[in-house]
Amino acid sequence: MSTREAGTGHTGENPAPSGIDAVVAAIRSGPRGAGVGAVFDLTALAELGSAPVPRWRGPDRELLETLFDQLRHSGESSAGDVLERGIRAAAGRTPEELTALGERLFERGWYDRLRPELLRLVQEHIAAGHTVVLTGDAAEFQLRPAAAALDIPQVLGSRAAVSGGRLTGRIEGEVRYGPEKAEAVSEFAAAHGVDLRRSYVYSGSAGDLPLLSRGGTQVPIAPDPVLAATAAEYGWTALAVGPRTAPRPADYLRTVLGLFALLGGALYGVLRKSYTRDRRAMADALMKYGTAWPLRLCGIRLRVTGAEHARHPRPAVFLFNHQSQFDVLIVPAVLGGHVTGIGKKELIRHPIFGPLMRFVGVTFIDRSNTDLAKASLAPVVDTLRGGLSVAIAPEGTRSYTAQPGRFKKGAFHMARQAGVPVIPVVIRNAAEVGRRDSMIARPGVVEVAILPPIAVDTQDPSELDEKVAEVRQRYLDTLRDWPR
């Protein structure tokens, strides 16, 4: 595989956090199987204490404020009291309503507080076949959205009591904090054949000392002062992680300049090739300069592995995992010319991106209507047969973490019908230069791996499902073992 870099500017690149590689090596060389546990407390998985408070709106505003405040107190003795207050305020609601509140809290409030270093450890434990559990001082409905986004199958938290299909306003038993949480994990381990003496426990709070003491490998993550002192006393290696910081004024300035660079680069590209009167040539030049200029000004560099697969074979369906708003710049910059894409229909009316996307031949789909979406994809097959490649996010939307979401089959159907391969474009860390719902650019290096083409020639629906799962697994494997 070849490796190349594109773009210039400050990299913002840091060496791997101290100790993470050693833990990864221990997991890979250690025992495998479900008998080994990996218990991640929320205080290790996310940096919540300094999380900015969202502006909640609607009739649930006060309840969301209380529940989010409870998350910000994770690891503190007051977390239980705040949780009980929130559950009392939720009395009379259905479990389904509570689930929706948990999803809203995660998606609007704290998905971007998850630590990417910990995602790496979660992936290693899953790959080793370990029993992975997310626990915390919060209720289970608060924890489940993060667990689902990270493919963590088990959640242990406090539970809201239900009677007659409605919340009673009380918590089942006791709030799971400190000794109660440790006891709940021990009971879960006994019921599922997990040997805690061979297991890993991750936490950042001294409140979890009873839980940490039951594990075989204790891993303090960004520990509070009391846990740091205890770790030093017992010889536990505390792991440093990067802070989740807010954008700086310079980032806002770079973003504004980058927007002007996008428009200027796009116009320059069209004018540069206008003498040809070839719309495709002008579209390719638009993408070349309309991506290179803003990436350069924003200080975003691309480090590409497997660049040869972007050039051959063509045409192809290029699949990219979608994390960031800046993927619309990263993917065309990596693939070069003679490629178009697929976007949501709402972008047609965007005053900037709408005209640009129409000019390069993007197909717009209605994601709210499955039948209309399928019908609008039919012309894309003709586009592929005509020799033009297509880039598409198989998840259908941006993921909340670096873990790829569930892949849809539309892109694979198109590739099969057009008789072209799919080529995975694996983006490692785009969310670090532009988080999911943010238009603010941060300088840094985005790593991209373009994998060899994969044929999609099956006619059997069950085999197609297997192919989709196989391709997604390649993303997971590549993100875990990045090609050098």
TrEMBL record:
<keyword id="KW-0472">Membrane</keyword>
<dbReference type="InterPro" id="IPR023214">
    <property type="entry name" value="HAD_sf"/>
</dbReference>
<keyword id="KW-0012">Acyltransferase</keyword>
<keyword id="KW-1133">Transmembrane helix</keyword>
<protein>
    <recommendedName>
        <fullName>1-acyl-sn-glycerol-3-phosphate acyltransferase</fullName>
        <ecNumber>2.3.1.51</ecNumber>
    </recommendedName>
</protein>
<feature type="transmembrane region" description="Helical">
    <location>
        <begin position="252"/>
        <end position="271"/>
    </location>
</feature>
<dbReference type="InterPro" id="IPR002123">
    <property type="entry name" value="Plipid/glycerol_acylTrfase"/>
</dbReference>
<dbReference type="Pfam" id="PF01553">
    <property type="entry name" value="Acyltransferase"/>
</dbReference>
<keyword id="KW-0808">Transferase</keyword>
<comment type="similarity">
    <text>Belongs to the 1-acyl-sn-glycerol-3-phosphate acyltransferase family.</text>
</comment>
<keyword id="KW-0444">Lipid biosynthesis</keyword>
<keyword id="KW-0594">Phospholipid biosynthesis</keyword>
<dbReference type="Pfam" id="PF12710">
    <property type="entry name" value="HAD"/>
</dbReference>
<keyword id="KW-0812">Transmembrane</keyword>
<keyword id="KW-1208">Phospholipid metabolism</keyword>
<feature type="domain" description="Phospholipid/glycerol acyltransferase">
    <location>
        <begin position="316"/>
        <end position="430"/>
    </location>
</feature>
<dbReference type="InterPro" id="IPR036412">
    <property type="entry name" value="HAD-like_sf"/>
</dbReference>
<dbReference type="InterPro" id="IPR004552">
    <property type="entry name" value="AGP_acyltrans"/>
</dbReference>
<keyword id="KW-0443">Lipid metabolism</keyword>
<dbReference type="GO" id="GO:0003841">
    <property type="term" value="F:1-acylglycerol-3-phosphate O-acyltransferase activity"/>
</dbReference>
